[in-house]
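Final report, results section. Input specification for complex C-07:
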Amino acid sequence: MKKHRMTRTALVLMVLFFGICFASGYFSSAQADEFSGPRQLFIEGNIAYKENNYAEAAAKYEKILRDGYVNANLYYNLANSYFKKGQLGEALLNYERAKLFMPSDSDVKSNEEYVRSLLQLSGPQTSGNWFDRSVDRLFAGFNVDRLSILVSVFYIVILAVFALGLVFAGLRKYSRPLAVILVVFLILSFTGLQRKIGYIRHGAIVIIREAEVKFEPLETATLYFRLSEGNSVDVLEKTRGWYKIKRPDGKIGWIRDSALEMISG
Amino acid sequence: MKKNIGLRNTIIFLILMAAFLSGGVLCFAKDINFEVTVDRAVVSVGETLQLNLTFEGTQDIPSLGLPAIEGFQARYLGPSTRMSVINGKVSTSITHIYTLLTTKIGTFTIGSFNFAYNGDAYVSNSVSVQVVTAQAQPDERQPQAQQELQAKDLSDRIFVVLEAGKRKIYLNETVPLKIKLYINSLGIKDIQYPLISHEGIALDETEQPRQYREAINGIDYDVIEFRTHVFGLRPGEFKLGPASIACQLIVKKEGGGRPPPGLDDLFNSHIFEDFFGGYQTYPLNPQSVEIPVTVLPLPQQDKPQDFNGAVGNFDMEAGVSPGEVKVGDPVTLKVVIKGEGNFNTVTMPKISADNNFKVYQPQVKQEAGGKVFEQIIMSTSTAVKEIPAISFSFFDVKAGVYRTLTKGPFALKVLKPEKEEESKIIEAVGPGASGPAIQEKLGRDIVYIKDSIGKINRKGEFLYENIYFLLFQIFPLLLFLLFFGLHTRTQKLKTDVRYARLLKAPGKAREGIRKARGYLTQGKTKEFYDTVFQTLQEYLGDKFHLPSRSITISVIDDTLKEKSLPENVLTALREIFSDCDMARFSVSERNLQDMEGTLKGLEETIDYFQRNKLS
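Structure output:
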């Protein structure tokens, strides 16, 4: 009797699961039409760009972003427009945003590298210890969505390996070391995902030529250090008109909010 | 006797309460006296006196909006109420208290005041106050040597003066503006920054004030001076000012400056007055006169083409760094414009860039005495030998002419890029051809824009924030836990006999009871008791992990006594076993009622064991 109840519960859970998957697919297809507006604006932006009207192109692309849509190519074209306008900090910021979606794109990489050279910046500045930096390098080619899927796959495979080990006693001698390896990969990929999410939430780029970082959030406070256009920082705290920031080398200070722009927009 | 006193007090109290609650309105409305009093009849200019407007016979009159009183500035302090009982007669009053600041010398009459409320008109008496010249009084807060002004008016002792550097100015020309607050022998605190009316004229930020002493007509004044700059926004005739400076006048309270006796009196007592020094503040807002300012348009004659509205007297420095770059590398042109004038209209001089340059937006920084522009320029060819000259034009107001400053051209050496940055295009060569490879020198630029937008996402729609994706993560874990639970149970049933028997016991018992009930319905007595006996034996055997066949009354007694079973359950068990034995092995007939009783006993006993989880 009890056995039947458990089977029924398992069936209900499966129906729910597939139902949710179906519903999510339905909603994503139902929303396909809402993207006609941004597509039109994107085309208009491209036309303005081709006519060397970079300010108008940037305005069109920005309008799409303000309407709540994002896309790798959109950020890439916006970055190009800013570059042509001479706003290199803004250009670098938008190449970084494009990289969130397509980290391996050669055009984004090339343009970003060129802007960095113009700004006399070395390479992408990352914070954290050697482990964090190694994890960043390991998953550099993954965007945040792919990394989320990878973490999920590792997690499901680990559960499956445990389940198989329970059923087939003969597999246990293989399933245990396999599970350990998978757990290590899960930890690595999860750390990589956490770092990418942290960068999205706290990362920011200096968009003015030179910014002063002070000990306190006051105009009259003592100057601590300076940041130049394109420098990358982590925003720790926001207060009225000021950001508390951390430089990749760990130095912490206060900077005017107009000097920075968050990666998350 | 005591009782009588208590009763009398209660009656008096009730009468008083009734009088108080009615507020005297009903009883005394027709008998209200409106009186004006002051605490002093003679007072020095710049000091205060207290004005009391008392309504005898009521407590229900609100404060009056006092009309302007010549020679005074009035400020309402608040009401004071009073109630007294004399020889059983209740009298009430309300006094509205005002502070009057004396502003002129002379003899002034205060009142009479007319006041209408709730359809009744009230007319007060009038009082006369003589305001005399301020006397020189030794005051520890004022320097002894300071000369006292024999002022007739408070405005002679505190006033604001607005001084503009020039009254006729050119458009965008900055002129200094001073706002001075003069104070003679008055205690002033909480001085605010001045507020200036300035239509058609722009004001810079006001600097930190300076304080010094200045003599006017032999009278020493303390001066608080605020400085700023102004410039005309459009040609025309404008008025600058008035400027007003809000502050607090500190006035010493004189004796008698207290409201009539009452609860408020406690807080105005000499104890507090002595503790706080006996001073009170009075808000003042002295104003300057306005000054006319003429804004002249800039002359059109000889106006340079690159003139962008800069007015003043400036100097320009400019330099380029580094002096030697590779193609595509940035060069910074730094321009510093210093001098006097309106920096709001100073802009970066334009560079006449040709195809060999890319010029980006300049970065602008305002520093003390100058404005710094840093412009990034990028050369796209080695043909570039210099950055062209730049020029900056401004209108020199002192000379009344336009001037143009020119710097440059700036020498620049542009080298070809490093080898690895060059692209080599080698022509396809046929067999045997040994023609030289053609080298093409290329610059460097960004890769072109993307034509297609691709898949669009909603902002913030990353998978890690997607509710369906997060829900999806729960299901594998739930399935695993379900699988794990089922697997563990199956394994236990296979390996743990006691557990398996315990788990199966209730099912088997239910089946036995069902069969027994069938025999009962059919009237098959022997089969019924056999089934009941067997069911109970098996149930108890499974439950207590004993061999089922060996279970008898004696075994039950021995085993279950240790479990501390209630006696009635044990008795029921014994009865069932006994009934079964009698029916199975004796000749005595069992009727339907006996069988039903036995079955009921069996059901209740098994139910008891199940409910109490005995094993």
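Residues 18-29, 136-147, 256-276, 420-437 of chain B have pLDDT under 50 and may be disordered. DSSP finds ten helices and 36 strands in chain B. This concludes the modelling results for the funded period.
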